[in-house]
Amino acid sequence: MDERPTLEDIRRAPKVLLHDHLDGGLRPATIVELARESGYDGLPTTDPDSLGTWFAEMSNSGSLERYLETFSHTVGVMQTREALARVAYEAAEDLARDGVVYAEVRYAPELHTREGLTLEQVVEAVLEGFEKGGRDHGVKVGTLVTAMRHQARSMEIAELAVRYRDAGVVGFDIAGAEAGYPPTRHLDAFEYLQRENAHFTIHAGEAFGLPSIWQAIQWCGADRLGHGVRIIDDIAVADGQKPKLGRLAAYVRDKRIPLEMCPTSNIQTGAAKSIAEHPIGLLRSLNFRVTVNTDNRLMSGTSLSEEFHKLVEAFGYGWDDLRWFTVNAMKSSFLDFSERLELINGVIKPGFEQLKWRGSRPVA
Fold it and tell me: Is 115 designated active site?
């Protein structure tokens, strides 16, 4: 029989990450160094270990709004071309060390212009860092440019996504607090992207409920849902009975709309109570197009391998389940279709098969 995958073995598995924020994955030591170089004096501590602990503790408030406040420090030190390129390079290196073979990392260009950089310079610096980091460490990284849902620059950012889509930008996203800022506020940007045959995902169904998901899909035409945890509110579960899907949940499943779920982060922001109670368990059993992600590796003190391992411990998942999540992610990526197939058939499936058989033991 197959043994449960260990964290060490999961790190060796070829993984795919679709929802990871660049400004949520910095190394604490890098934040301290960049703050010193730039003159940024707002850090709560300049000791890297203590700073890492501070980020983790501040992110466990159970409030999305307080969780987002921690980004003031990471964004604060990411205001030069050199800083952006360095952070992107190190992100590629860290992902590769965790066994990630393909990642889509998102960031909001408009947050990095305080010291005079143009939106274009921000995008080019990030692309430069990921290109070099990916080449040096053997991981392919596509970027998503993100518009902040409480601002009014989504059309500018959407145009950036189209302008740089042949240079490494694979899609568009909107992020930020959901309540009071529905995705329909940015309908012109989504309609533009659709006319340009461009890909986009929308943060929806995390801190807000089914209306956010419904608008993201039916009004805006999202290819994927960032988080989408609250789709569980449209599924009725009664003891001894088969779960009954509402119209929206059935549509999401039938249309194979990918859900970019981030278990640890969802708990920190109050979207889920615990890993064991996370909707991902039910949604996986109902065969929704679920993917597993990190969201913000620094704030959550996590990695993709650790997210998988938490699910193994909570739900008893084996290698077949982890491969299922990974193939889902690769199928749902914004990468060219032929490249997706190449990674699925040439890297992911063989890699998981090797780990599965290595972890098997003869039955007595």
Answer: no
